[in-house]
Automatic annotation (TrEMBL):
GO BP annotations listed: transmembrane transport
Residue span(s) of domain ABC transmembrane type-1: 72-285
InterPro entries to which the protein is assigned, alphabetical: ABC_transporter_permease, MetI-like, MetI-like_sf
Protein name per its UniProtKB record: Carbohydrate ABC transporter membrane protein 1, CUT1 family
């Protein structure tokens, strides 16, 4: 009897967590996948007999939907520009914080981490003022050097860059802490040996620091890429996808279709296209990671 108890004890501990994971994660995914093959809307939720199976029509319609295709293109712009900026800036912040004294480093860690835990609505209020075309601080500073007003949130392409800048500033904190922990875990003996060999700071950065942080860089890059593919909060609170759908992302498109227009089947289909893109992007990064390790 005691053997049976020992056998089932681990399952009793992990059982509640697994049950919650199944109910609130896996089950909704399965249901959403089924809904993506139907024309479910508010009428269908009220009367299930009004729900019709449409097969792959939702998926095919998405690829002929100009708004969705533009949202996908916008998302790729966010990823291509935002991911390198976010990863690179958080690394350099961590690198320079690691060079200063302990008290100063603690102060800067707090300063750079605060935006990551600040409510997005509060951030939107502040950055909305900074980006205001008539009275914003950025345009005021530009006017001091005789540069005309920049339509930070009024021009589609400039608005994308503005959202990227705000998102990079907001997201630096968490990645910076990961990089900082990785930097502080590098044994000092490596640098001491490099000093004896006459290596300069650039050589130590290239030959010691970056290779020693490969796993941290990989982790930050993967999580940052996934986050930018799911880019939602910034365009939602700052531009609502405008102007002219110029800042809409796939995640915001899914929200609009599912919760504003109540086209749940259509929105679910878009969500699984985004899911497929994230899976493919992640697998590609893991493939590159394995190829680097074999070299």
């Amino acid at each position: 009897m005691s053997t049976m108890k020992k056998k089932w004890t681990p399952f009793l501990f992990i059982g509640p967590a697994v049950l919650l994971l199944i109910i609130f994660s896996f089950l909704p995914i399965i249901v959403a996948f089924g809904i993506s093959f139907t024309d479910t809307n508010l009428i269908g939720l009220a009367n299930w007999t009004q729900i019709n199976f449409v097969g792959f029509d939702n998926y095919l319609e998405l690829f002929s939907d100009q708004k969705f295709m533009q949202s996908m293109a916008n998302t790729f712009v966010y990823v291509i520009i935002g991911v390198p900026l976010a990863v690179g800036s958080s690394f350099f912040i961590a690198f320079f914080i690691n060079l200063v004294g302990q008290k100063l480093a603690s102060t800067f860690r707090v300063i750079y981490y605060i935006p990551s835990v600040t409510n997005i609505v509060a951030i939107a209020v502040v950055w909305g003022f900074l980006y205001n075309q008539e009275y914003g601080l950025f345009n005021y500073l530009l006017s001091l050097v005789d540069i005309g007003r920049v339509p930070w949130l009024e021009d589609p392409f400039v608005a994308k860059l503005s959202l990227i800048l705000m998102a990079v500033w907001k997201s630096n904190g968490i990645s910076m802490l990961i990089f900082l922990a990785a930097l502080q875990s590098i044994p000092r003996v490596y640098y001491e040996a490099a000093d004896i060999d006459g290596a300069n700071r650039w050589q130590k950065l290239i030959k010691i620091t970056l290779p020693s942080m490969s796993f941290a860089t990989f982790f930050v890059t993967v999580t940052t890429l996934i986050g930018w593919l799911q880019f939602f909060e910034e365009p939602f609170v700052m531009t609502d996808g405008g102007p002219l759908n110029g800042t809409n992302s796939i995640a915001l498109f899914i929200y609009q279709e599912g919760f504003q227009y109540n086209e749940f089947g259509y929105g679910a289909a878009a969500s699984f296209i985004l899911f497929a893109i994230i899976i493919v992007a992640t697998l590609i990064q893991f493939k590159f990671r394995k190829s680097d390790q074999t070299l």
